Amino acid sequence: MKKIDVSVIAGDGIGKEVMPEALKVLETVADVHGGLSFSFKHYPWSCDYYIEHNEMMPEDGLDQLQESDAVFLSAVGDPNLVPDHISLWGLLVKIRREFEQVINIRPAKQMKGIQSPLVHPNDFDLMVVRENSEGEYSEAGGRIHRGEDELAIQNAIFTRKGIERAVEYGFQLAQSRRGHVTSATKSNGIVHSMPFWDSVFESVAEKYPDVKTASNHIDALASFFVTRPQEFDVIVASNLFGDILTDVGAAIMGSIGIAPAANINMNGKYPSMFEPVHGSAPDIYGKGIANPIGQIWTGKMMLDHFGEHELGNTLLQVIEEVLQDGIKTPDIGGTSSTTEVSDAIVTRLKALK
Ligand code: NAD
Ligand code: IPM
Ligand code: MN
C-alpha cells in the first residue's frame, strides 16, 4: 500500500468550505485505486488562529509540516480580521520561501462543460511556469514615514540562479508537451531587471534546440491570452507577471474557482505545496456556493506529483463529466452548491470501482 502523508491547511474563508470537499474526493480516489491511501493531518492555521495566538502558525510550524510528504492548502487571508501583509507573509509565502518551493506551475485549458467567456473559444491548453521565490516579491523594501514626503520602496531582486531554474523547468516541461516556450517579459528596458531575464532565457534556450521559443511583453501577452490562447504551450514568467497572467488564464477557462496550482520544491529537502489559484473569496464565504473544482483539480496535481498520472487523469475526466451533466456552481453559470458538485464527483468515481 502506497501511503501519502498530507498536511492540510484549510485556512480562511471559502478555504474552509472547499477543503473538506476535496479531501472527500481524494479519499474516494484512493479507495477506487485500492493500493493508495492518504493520511491527512489538519492544521488550524489561519486568521482566526492569529486572533487567538498572535501568530499565523506556531514557531515550530514548519518543522511540523516537514514531517509530511506534501502540504495541501486552500486559501489564506481575511482582510477584515488581519491585514493581508501579516497573514500572507506569516503563512502562505513563508511556506513557499522556507520550503524552497521555487517553481509555481499553473495550467489553464478549455474544460468540457464550461462556457468560456471568450467570443471565439478555440481549444487551448497552456501551462504557466511562475518563478516563485524572488523577483518583484522580494523582501527588500518598505514604507518610509517622512511626513508629507512619505514613500514606499519595492526592490525587485532577480538572480541568475532563480531565473535559470524556472526557465529550465519550462523548457523541460515543453519537451514533454508541444515543444514551445514563451517568455513573459518587458524587455523594452523600462523595467531594468527584464533585459537580464531575457539574456538568461536566451542562454537556457540554447541548450534546448528542439524547443521553439517566443518572447512577448507582459502587457501584450495578457491580451493574447484573451485573443489567441490556443497559440501557447508553456509560458515562463516572473513572480508578479506569473501571478497576474494566471488569473487571466483562470478567467478564460471560465472562473478563478476552477484553476489549480502547485508550488514545487526542486531539491527534495522539503515538501511541495498544492494550493489553488483563488483566494479566500470573502464576498461569497458562508453561502455554500464556492466552486470546489479548483481545490479538487489541485488534488489531481498532487496525484501527478506522486506519479499517479492515470488516476489524476481519471479524476480530471470525471470533473468534466460532472460539468457536462450541468452540475455547476453559480460562478460558472450553474445553480448547484459546493457539496452538490463534490458529491457528484464522488458518485461518478465510485461507479468506476
Ligand atoms: P479571491 O480569489 O479570493 O476572489 C476573487 C473573486 O473570485 C471573488 O469575486 C470571489 O468570489 C471569486 N472566487 C474566488 N474563488 C472562488 C471559488 N472557488 N468559487 C467561486 N468564486 C470564487 O481574490 P481576492 O478577493 O483578491 O482576495 C481575497 C483574499 O484572499 C485576500 O486576503 C487575498 O490576499 C487572499 N488570497 C489568497 C490566496 C492564497 O491563499 N493562495 C490567493 C489569492 C488571494
Ligand atoms: C496567488 C496569490 C498570492 C500571490 C498572494 C495571496 C500572496 O495571489 O497565489 O496567486 O500573489 O502569489
Ligand atoms: Mn494570485
Task: Give a short synopsis of this structure.
By secondary structure, the chain is α/β, with parallel strands linked by helices. The protein has helices at residues 15-33, 47-53, 61-66, 84-98, 160-175, 194-205, 218-227, 239-253, 293-305, 309-324, 338-351, and strands spanning 2-11, 36-43, 70-75, 103-109, 125-131, 141-144, 151-154, 180-185, 212-217, 234-237, 262-264, 272-274. The mean pLDDT is 97.
Structural class: alpha/beta
Bound molecules: nicotinamide-adenine-dinucleotide, 3-isopropylmalic acid, manganese (II) ion
CATH class of the largest domain: Alpha Beta
Helix share bin: 40-55%
Distance between the termini: 17 Å
For this structure, the CATH topology of the largest domain is Isopropylmalate Dehydrogenase
Strand order of the largest sheet: 2-1-3-12-11-4-5-10-8-9
Give the overall form. globular
EC number: 1.1.1.83
Enzyme class: oxidoreductase
Keywords: Manganese, Metal-binding, NAD, Oxidoreductase
Organism: Halobacillus shinanisalinarum
